[in-house]
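So, can you check this record?

>
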Amino acid sequence: MRILKDIPELVKADVITPETADKIRNYYQSKGSASPNQLYIVFAIIGSILVGLGIILMMAHNWDELSRITKTFFAFLPLLLGQILCGYTLIKKQASTTWRESGSVFLFFAVGASIALVGQIYHIPGGTGTFLLTWMLLCLPLVYLMPSSGTSLLYLACLTYYVTHLDFGSSSNSYWYWLLLFGILPHYYQLYRKKPTSNFMIFHNWLIPLSIAIALVTVAKETEELLFIAYCSLFGFFILVGNLDFFAQQKLKNNSYKLIGTLGTMLLLFVLSFNGFWQNVSEELLSNNQIFTAPEWYAAVLITLFAGGLLFFRRRSKALITLPQLEPVFTFFIIIFIIGLFAPIAAGLVNLLILVIGILTMREGAAKSHLGVLNLGLLIITTLILCRFFDTDLSFVIRGLLFVLVGAGFFGANYWLLKKRKTNEQ
């Protein structure tokens, strides 16, 4: 660890006393001995995956030459081995994270292999979606029985893969996804309580919002335009979650909710800044008599209520003008969407909203003396100009001038901020 290597130099330079140096060394030694070796856990999980895949490959090599009874025996053999391994772990090695993670990951794949092999041996009908649904239903208790965060991550990944196999717009099986997702949330909460800074927690923070964002499209049926409200509110909810104290104190790369919410919100606004979307949305929604009973309506209302409630909670402690600029964007978008149903100015209002976000982002970057945030604001405005480059009738001279102005803005803003930093340092 670098800080331990620097201690002699700091003592020699009288930055810290020898007593303080001893305290630092003792602190990191006690911290290292209290936490399990992360590398062992990673290798144990990878090893379990490779062993499971290797067993499946060996059986598949001579599969056609085996009798049905032999095939059935080998189909259940990995399952039996996995259960023995997990049983031994629960009895003898329950305190070992390495044993728990490796045993449960092996059993996770063994369950999947057994389902697939039995289905193939006895010609049980069913597609990939049915197979994944059965697999996840059987493996959900394993997450809590062991307990195993590695299995929880595999479960979430397979659950997300399952939702991509649904027939969007006509399938009711998407409700299974939401039920199974709720099933894993107690483990996520326990992880937050016991290991809030662990790698498993960080991976869960990325996988859960990504999975929800992918799965939301499955509620689309006949009024899919309403999903834009649902998605904007969902990304707004993610931004609000990412700005809570727990996530705001983490590094930006670990704040998945904020990153996904920000990218999703801006991507959605840029897509809806084109006139093409708004030309038919009014006719399709206003002529639909079943709009208030559509699943997209319920999804949009429910997610907006969650996001609005969290925004109200944040608003109680801070003035609206001091909130991060992207937090209330979903409320403005809903107003624009309603205006767009009755007047052909929605695309213009979305462009105006993007421009305001870009300007406010630049202002935040200047106030914090942060080059990254400042350039992000400039990038938002540049992208907006690029989008308008393709769907406006402006002459090439004016378009060229706009790009020259934005380019000059990049140079000028960065030069000004660097000069400001240098002045403050002096």
